[in-house]
Amino acid sequence: DLLGKYLVHVFEDVKHIGKIVEVGVDYAGAWAKKNLRFYIKDNPFVSKP
């Protein structure tokens, strides 16, 4: 449900999940370097640098 409170997708193969560092949060100290952004690899709807 895209209009609900949560959007959940269950993956059977976690190899399709990527993780990256958030950009522009240097003020967050040590947390700024943590991989806290997750995305679906090879998904055409995920923006790329």
Topology:
Blueprint: E1 17-20, E2 37-40
Antiparallel strand pairs: 1-2
From the structure above, extract its key features.
49 residues; 0% helix; extended
If you had to describe this structure to a student in words, what would you say it looks like?
The chain has one domain. A two-stranded antiparallel sheet has the order 1-2. Helix content is 0%, strand content 16%. By secondary structure, it is an all-beta fold. It is extended. The model has no long low-confidence stretch (mean pLDDT 77). The chain has strands at 17-20, 37-40.
Brief digest:
By secondary structure, the protein is mostly beta strands. It has strands at 17-20, 37-40.
Number of helices: 0
Instruction: Please state the CA-atom Rg, rounded to the nearest Å.
Output: 13 Å
Q: SSE order in H/E notation?
A: EE
- The helix content, as a percent range, equals under 10%
